[in-house]
Specification:
By secondary structure, this protein is mainly α. It is built from two helices and no strands. Helix 1 packs across helix 2. The protein is rod-shaped. The model has no long low-confidence stretch (mean pLDDT 91).
Length: 124
């Protein structure tokens, strides 16, 4: 929407209507050209800006994916270490329980054998 340039009446009187109108048309033409150039420049700048934003988003996305992958690797390593530690502790617990149960069974067997021999001596 061009802005129509208006000149004072004295200007029209000094130069004449034809020259003044031609000057006004030239001003409007220059204004339209500048507006068009400015719009084109703004569109180009926005396109560059948009491309940079997209590039930065892609970089951030790649960096985030890399950090998530590193975190997953660290978590897996931590879980493997915790699993190994748990397996070792469970094996130690199983060893202790087996020893205690064996001790209980030996004591129980000795007690039972003693009772059996005692009953046989009393009866016999």
């Amino acid at each position: 929407m061009p802005v129509t340039a208006k000149l004072s009446r004295k200007f029209y009187e000094k130069l004449g209507d034809d020259v003044a109108n031609e000057l006004v048309e030239w001003f409007n033409s220059v204004d339209a050209t500048y507006r068009s150039d400015l719009k084109e420049l703004n569109e180009l700048n926005f396109a560059r800006f948009d491309a940079k934003v997209e590039q930065r988003w892609a970089q951030l996305d790649a960096k985030l994916e890399q950090r998530v992958a590193e975190l997953r690797a660290e978590m897996r390593a931590g879980f493997v270490a915790a699993d190994a530690k748990l397996e070792r502790r469970l094996a130690e617990l199983e060893t202790r329980l087996t020893r205690r149960m064996f001790g209980f069974w030996v004591a129980q067997a000795a007690t039972t054998a003693g009772l059996v021999f005692g009953v046989i001596k009393l009866v016999g």
